[in-house]
């Protein structure tokens, strides 16, 4: 029996929510070690990440490590006028935060802090699951698929890199025509590379 996308979401979210606090903490440290070996990192100045929710891999240690490396970090904000789209705002220790409609923390909208997505070097994407060919299963809103579409069509612009727990990997996901596969996904134990 083949699982539906919704079944995969439910199953994988359950698995990652079963991780203990100790396992979550260790994964957040191990992801920094793996991420630090990425060849793209040397030339990357502007990096979009996200703040973790719902059992996602905790990104705070990675963000703080990137600050120590002199990198600028940005977080996604749900676009207030363009439905289903994201803006990216500069993020540091002093950024005022609010909760969006999904109860995820994001920077308070301030147009002076927006960076056009094309000026980002890397976009680290959250995901619910991924498979052995680099396909990503998100929460179903399509925000990142829309954001990454120009890169997928042209090969230019910010490079997407998925971040995930090892338990979020499955052999094969059901794919839709709008899904954007990722060239790399970093987990605490390895870097999956389809380039």
Automatic annotation (TrEMBL):
Belongs to the 5-formyltetrahydrofolate cyclo-ligase family. Its EC number is 6.3.3.2. Substrate binds at residues 51, 56. The lineage of its organism: Bacteria, Pseudomonadati, Pseudomonadota, Gammaproteobacteria, Vibrionales. InterPro entries: FTHF_cligase (IPR002698), FTHF_cligase-like_sf (IPR024185), NagB/RpiA_transferase-like (IPR037171). One of its GO terms (molecular function) is metal ion binding. It catalyses: (6S)-5-formyl-5,6,7,8-tetrahydrofolate + ATP = (6R)-5,10-methenyltetrahydrofolate + ADP + phosphate. Gene3D superfamilies: NagB/RpiA/CoA transferase-like (3.40.50.10420). Keywords: ATP-binding, Ligase, Magnesium, Metal-binding, Nucleotide-binding. NCBIfam families: MTHFS_bact (TIGR02727). It holds the Pfam family 5-FTHF_cyc-lig. This is 5-formyltetrahydrofolate cyclo-ligase. The keyword Secreted does not apply. It comes from Vibrio nereis. The keyword Cell division does not apply. GO terms for biological process: folic acid-containing compound biosynthetic process; tetrahydrofolate interconversion. ATP binds at residues 5-9, 136-144. It is an enzyme of class 6 (ligase). Its cofactor is Mg(2+).
